[in-house]
Here is the input.
Amino acid sequence: MSEHNPKHVYIHTIGCQMNVYDSGQLMAILKAEGFCETRDIGEADLIIVNTCAIREKAVQKMASFIGRFSGLKQKKPGARIVVAGCVAQQQGRRLLERFPHVDVVVGTHAFRRLPLLLEEREARGESLVDISMTENIEKTDSEILLKHHQTDVSEFVTIMRGCDNFCTYCVVPYVRGPEISRSPADILSEIADLVESGMKEVTLLGQNVNSYGMKEGLCTFAELLERVHAIDGLERIRFVTSHPKDLSPELIEAFVSLEKLCPHIHLPVQSGSDRILKKMNRRYTVAAYLDKVYRLRQAVPEIALTTDIIAGFPGETEQDFNQTLELIQEVEYESLFAFEYSDRPDAPARRFKNKVDAVEKNRRLRKLFALQASITQKKQRAMVGRTLDVLVEGVSKMQKKQGRAVNNGSTELCGRTGGNRIVNFSFGTDCDLDIRALKGQIIRVRIEKAFSNSLWGVPVNMASPSRQIKGGYVHVA
Ligand code: SAH
Ligand code: SF4
Ligand code: F3S
Here is the structure.
């Protein structure tokens, strides 16, 4: 490809952090091939949508996105459209039948071959599909990836792919394949490289990080955490997701012994009814789950807990649902993600009897949100008056939207606490601080206001921060 006339690529990502990570890899691979990233879709020669199949709504999002480009080639004959990710894996050639203007369909294991597939598309003059699941996941040229990766303060790093758990509602094992863990050496070198280029916080990704390395006989997840913890310059470690059945005492212990490990755990419970948990094939009981919550809180009293709940799983009665509400009341999560149950083509629950109707599913969902909103409000309010360590990520959302209008012209920044709460904070209008210098630092912020999704506060000991930073007031934990 000519250096003077680079092709612009736009990637639209739907779905979980795993897809965000894959989109980053895909972008790096394409940049290495001479493509140039654009954030303006109108400028793009190559439009890629990285898709999610977890619920019907995510599939609909993909369909309406692709539908927008049905007339694109009349205006721009050279433009190419690619569907990648979980729906690509699931539907393969059927996507081409439904969307004839799509050029390449590439699955979850084959996406690293996209540059070759694009060439093949041109040579053949027709659309093509690659959903083979034979790609070796270790085959990433980290030098290329790093050179073209946009390092931020916080990054995702996938430590394992696929899933062997087969929860009866879930499509992931079918679209992502069996669980495979990356080698510790590979993971550590990727993180060390990212830290060297300025990254401070890493979130280790897997569908069930607690079973990391078990199948391959690598180290345990707790051991991997210890080795990641030893990387100099890394400030914070997070991970998602933990399957409650595999949460080990060693992992609970790691929260105590590893100070970089953030006091937050996402522990999806899905339901508060043993009967429903059994039908979901989750392989734990409510009592066993609560026992783990108790042990986590005993080890780290301040630990932030978040969860996922499915509302209206087939056969869920009012009584089952009330047990879920009771569980939420008992645990008091910091926040929760709740979803209406959605039938998936590959998942066995699709054939289960006694489906809950759409109106009732929605009523239950709203009830879950209302209960959680009151718990969140109580927990957020309890933060007012406290001084928290905040990793500065950059300019706040509000500031980006409204420019200097926020807070009478002062600059509002945002960051996160170890418990993953969003904190916005600002400096005085006379502040001559270079905000870029603060990005990636951990500062102390006194919380003054609480909102449902964020906190607002004032940096401590930083009235004229530009001078005080030099004086060493910035607290790097
Ligand atoms: N591996 C993670 C979950 C990944 S999917 C785990 O086991 O916890 C993220 C969430 O989507 C799940 O926790 C579940 O709450 C929800 N989900 C998955 N399949 C679903 C379906 N068919 N309908 C509704 N929600 C679903
Ligand atoms: Fe899906 Fe269950 Fe695997 Fe999570 S553990 S990805 S919910 S099958
Ligand atoms: Fe969706 Fe695939 Fe993630 S189905 S939730 S993008 S693994």
About this structure: Residues 387-475 form a domain with the OB fold (Dihydrolipoamide Acetyltransferase, E2P) fold (CATH 2.40.50).
